[in-house]
């Protein structure tokens, strides 16, 4: 079939490919497999580096059940059937579980674990911030074990000792919490309590941090 060389049309083709990828969550590899067009060819279309064939447009439209007239209609977005019985729906059902990187929302067990850990860490940070700044919890000295028990009961969040210690130490360094050593007889290992510092101490800590930061900048 004939070739279309109009640059405006090339830009429109690129935009439509991006729209298809966005609405279907397919990767370029997935779209290539789905439309039976090579990935390198789609890549060239996407970056407007190749002349467009009517045949290629027809393959895209046929695979997605889109009338070609709609594909070129600038007044309307593409309407792509994504239900389970559509061409795309059957394609997704078949290939999504195979981890072929055909879809942007494919999640491997490793990535899922990383995502879960990131969410857990964020929730842990938020719970500590709430205890320190939005409650009077640290008006009284608290041990790490007490903080862990409170977080689990109030927020359904489980902390490891090292994790909660590192979070609390951040606010000790910033002057919002004060850490004190408990007497040796209290426990076999060294134990600390954490308590809110006075407003005066917090201001002084902020000033100390500002001086350190200015010193670091000047010494560079």
UniProtKB/TrEMBL annotation:
One of its GO terms (molecular function) is DNA binding. This is HTH cro/C1-type domain-containing protein. Residues 26-71 form the HTH cro/C1-type domain. InterPro entries: Cro/C1-type_HTH (IPR001387), Lambda_DNA-bd_dom_sf (IPR010982). The lineage of its organism: Bacteria, Pseudomonadati, Bacteroidota, Sphingobacteriia, Sphingobacteriales.
């Amino acid at each position: 079939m004939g070739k279309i060389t109009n640059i405006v049309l090339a830009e429109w083709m690129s935009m439509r490919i991006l729209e298809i990828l966005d609405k279907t969550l397919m990767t370029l590899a997935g779209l290539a497999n789905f439309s039976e067009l090579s990935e390198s060819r789609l890549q060239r279309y996407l970056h407007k580096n190749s002349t467009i064939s009517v045949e290629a447009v027809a393959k895209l439209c046929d695979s997605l059940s889109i009338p070609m007239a709609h594909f070129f209609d600038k007044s309307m977005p593409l309407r792509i059937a994504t239900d389970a019985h559509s061409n795309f729906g059957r394609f997704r059902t078949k290939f999504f579980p195979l981890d072929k990187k055909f879809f942007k929302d494919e999640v491997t067990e490793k990535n899922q674990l990383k995502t879960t850990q990131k969410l857990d860490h964020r929730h842990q940070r938020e719970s500590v911030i709430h205890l320190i700044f939005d409650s009077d919890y640290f008006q009284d000295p608290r041990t790490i074990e007490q903080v862990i028990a409170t977080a689990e009961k109030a927020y359904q969040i489980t902390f490891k000792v090292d994790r909660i210690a590192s979070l609390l130490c951040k606010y000790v360094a910033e002057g919002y919490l004060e850490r004190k050593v408990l007497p040796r007889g209290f426990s076999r290992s060294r134990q600390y309590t954490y308590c809110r510092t006075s407003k005066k101490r917090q201001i002084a800590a902020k000033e100390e941090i500002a001086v350190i930061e200015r010193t670091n900048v000047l010494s560079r």
